């Protein structure tokens, strides 16, 4: 990929998918990378995560395709369709998982911890410095450098800091001066992942869902609830998530345990024998309740001097219903690394071009999470069953094919010239516009 003349020193806060992708993209371009993460290991928490081709195509280029191959080996790569069903099991629509072979090759899904481990090992192989078990407490910026201070007082300085510190980012407040604006409390998601036993796999009502020749994805919808379930790797791995009203106003946490009996009022609405059986075989103690919080899009992603930039969930905290949290973070990472490689050490220029390229696209995806979450609410089943395909697309819209590398390589010079010729204003005004026809394959988003 070529390298910059004097390697830039990049400090990344957060080793989630966004931070790890930024580390990989920057290392592949010859920059020096230090990545700081508050967890003490490559965190294995979480259940199921998907990367769709807009992110997957970037991953597939890493290390000549090795990372993508490994993701397919450990994840779900035999999904044909996502079966969208009514709460009682009636089929609404089969939504194609991939629209063509290229789409299939660049779509990854699987256990979040396993896929995360795969990214993490790639960062290790590429030689980034990884500092684990340390929390960043303060972001700092001068005219010619940016840095962070850790809880133990240690400081790290570099040419820039990438704040990939997730949904509850402290950079938002410290770097952008914004409060933690959030809305949408009132919903949460029960989430689980477990390795299935042979006995569980032979449950009479789970023959279809646990078939081994395919990996399986089912979604059951009721009026205001949805349950999404996966089985993969010969049905030995199972995950499901159930979105439900959150009467208790629980905190945001990836480890807040939920008792099975607390789920009963919601589960009983899914009368499909398959959904009931899946709940029945779910081991006790394996389920969490995750608060669904909507944080509106930010007005900007960069600091005053342009040497700190927020990416991933820190910049645009996608709702899981958009299915794009990981992929959008990877698009940010690639775009930023490309701009840094070509900015001739003008870091503020690189971060400015990055946010101008990413702003409208990422906001559009971000907003879609809300639209898809609410798509079946207050719509009669008669109406849905009259045009099930359209409703399926509304709930799970495909993004139009998009190559973030092509975009940044064709737009870098254009936007650089716009900046140099004084095109200023809010990001809403100056950022790269969306393509005609929008970014989704249906007209509904
Ligand atoms: C533990 C965990 C489990 C998850 N499980 C799922 C899942 O099952 N399914 C799903 O769709 N999505 C899951 N997500 C969210 C998903 O990974 C993200 O939405 C998406 O990949 C975008 O990634 P990100 O890197 O921007 O943010 P995140 O994945 O949230 O990563 C942010 C990272 O920054 C670290 N961090 C935060 N603050 C500091 C600080 N001050 N100092 C140092 N480090 C800091 C966090 O520990 C975290 O590792 C999970 C996230 C986490 C953190």
Task: Explain the layout of strands and helices.
Layout lengths: L8 E5 L3 H12 L3 E6 L10 E4 L1 H9 L4 H9 L4 E8 L4 E6 L4 H5 L2 E4 H14 L3 E4 L3 E6 L4 E5 L4 E4 L1 E4 L7 H4 L12 E9 L2 H4 L13 E7 L4 E7 L4 E9 L14 H8 L5 H9 L5 E5 L16 E3 L14 H18 L4 H27 L7 H6 L1 H8 L8 H17 L6 H4 L15
Parallel strand pairs: 1-2, 1-11, 2-7, 4-13, 11-17
Antiparallel strand pairs: 3-6, 4-5, 8-9, 9-10, 12-15, 12-16, 13-14, 14-15
Helix pairs in contact: 1-5, 1-10, 2-3, 2-10, 3-5, 10-11, 10-14, 11-14
The site of flavin-adenine dinucleotide has 32 residues, from helix 1, strand 2, strand 3 and helix 10.
Please tell me about this protein's structure.
- There is one protein chain.
- With 445 residues, the protein is of the alpha/beta class.
- It folds into two domains: 9-78 and 100-181 and 296-430, FAD/NAD(P)-binding domain (3-Layer(bba) Sandwich); 187-291, D-Amino Acid Oxidase, Chain A, domain 2, CATH 3.30.9.
- It is 35% helix and 22% strand.
- The chain has 15 helices and 17 strands.
- The chain has helices spanning 17-28, 53-61, 66-74, 101-105, 112-125, 171-174, 198-201, 260-267, 273-281, 325-342, 347-373, 381-386, 388-395, 404-420, 427-430; strands at residues 9-13, 32-37, 48-51, 79-86, 91-96, 108-111, 129-132, 136-141, 146-150, 155-158, 160-163, 187-195, 215-221, 226-232, 237-245, 287-291, 308-310.
- The strands form four sheets. Strands 5-4-13-14-15-12-16 form a seven-stranded mixed sheet, with helices on both faces. It has a five-stranded parallel sheet with strand order 7-2-1-11-17, covered by helices on one side. Strands 8-9-10 form a three-stranded antiparallel sheet, with no helix packed on it.
- Strand 9 and strand 10 (155-158) form a beta hairpin.
- Helix 2 crosses helix 3, helix 10 (325-342) packs antiparallel against helix 11 and helix 10 crosses helix 14.
- The radius of gyration is 22 Å and the shape is globular.
- The mean pLDDT is 92.
- The structure holds flavin-adenine dinucleotide.
- Flavin-adenine dinucleotide binds next to helix 1, strand 2, strand 3 and helix 10.
- Residues 13-19, 36-39, 43, 45-49, 112, 135-136, 164-167, 170, 254, 312-313, 320, 325-326, 329 line the site of flavin-adenine dinucleotide (FAD).
- It holds the Pfam family FAD_binding_3.
- Keywords: FAD, Flavoprotein, Membrane, Monooxygenase, Oxidoreductase, Transmembrane, Transmembrane helix.
- One of its GO terms (molecular function) is monooxygenase activity.
- The chain crosses the membrane at residues 6-24.
- Belongs to the paxM FAD-dependent monooxygenase family.
């Amino acid at each position: 990929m070529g390298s910059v003349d004097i390697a830039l020193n990049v400090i990344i806060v957060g080793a989630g998918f966004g931070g790890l992708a930024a580390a990989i993209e920057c290392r592949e371009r010859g920059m020096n990378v230090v990545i700081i993460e508050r967890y003490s290991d490559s965190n294995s928490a979480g259940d199921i995560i998907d990367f769709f081709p807009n992110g997957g195509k970037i991953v597939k280029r890493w290390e000549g395709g090795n990372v993508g191959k490994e993701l397919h080996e450990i994840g779900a790569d035999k999904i044909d369709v996502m079966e969208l069903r009514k709460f009682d099991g009636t089929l609404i629509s089969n939504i194609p998982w991939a629209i063509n072979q290229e789409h299939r090759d660049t779509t990854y899904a699987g256990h979040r911890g396993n896929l995360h481990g795969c990214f993490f090992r790639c960062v290790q192989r590429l030689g980034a410095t990884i500092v684990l078990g340390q929390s960043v407490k303060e972001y700092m910026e001068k005219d010619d450098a940016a840095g962070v201070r850790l809880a133990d007082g240690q400081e790290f300085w570099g040419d820039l800091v990438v704040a990939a510190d997730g949904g509850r980012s402290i950079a938002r407040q410290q770097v952008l001066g914004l409060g933690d604006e959030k809305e949408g409390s009132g919903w949460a998601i029960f989430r689980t992942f477990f390795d299935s036993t042979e006995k569980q796999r032979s449950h009479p009502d789970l023959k279809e869902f646990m078939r081994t020749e395919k990996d399986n994805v089912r979604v059951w919808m009721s009026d205001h609830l949805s349950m999404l379930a996966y089985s993969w790797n010969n049905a030995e791995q199972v995950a499901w998530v159930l979105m439900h009203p959150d009467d208790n106003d629980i905190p945001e946490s990836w480890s807040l345990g939920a008792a099975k009996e607390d789920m009963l009022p919601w589960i009983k609405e899914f009368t499909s024998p398959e959904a009931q059986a899946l709940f029945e075989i779910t081991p006790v103690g394996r389920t969490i309740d995750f608060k669904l919080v909507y944080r509106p899009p930010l007005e900007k992603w960069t600091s005053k001097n342009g040497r700190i930039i927020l990416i991933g969930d820190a910049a645009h905290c996608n709702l899981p219903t958009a299915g794009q949290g990981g992929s959008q973070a990877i698009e940010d990472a690639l775009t930023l690394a490309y701009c840094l490689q070509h900015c001739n050490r003008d870091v503020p220029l690189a971060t400015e071009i990055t946010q101008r390229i990413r702003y409208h696209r990422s906001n559009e995806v971000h907003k879609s999470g809300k639209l898809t979450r609410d798509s079946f609410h207050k719509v009669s089943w008669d109406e849905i069953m009259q045009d099930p395909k359209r409703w399926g697309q509304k709930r799970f819209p495909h993004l139009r094919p998009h190559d973030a590398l092509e975009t940044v390589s064709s737009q870098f010079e254009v936007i650089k010239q716009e900046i140099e010729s004084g095109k200023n204003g809010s990001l809403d005004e100056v950022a790269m516009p969306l393509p005609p026809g929008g970014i989704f394959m249906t007209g509904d988003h």
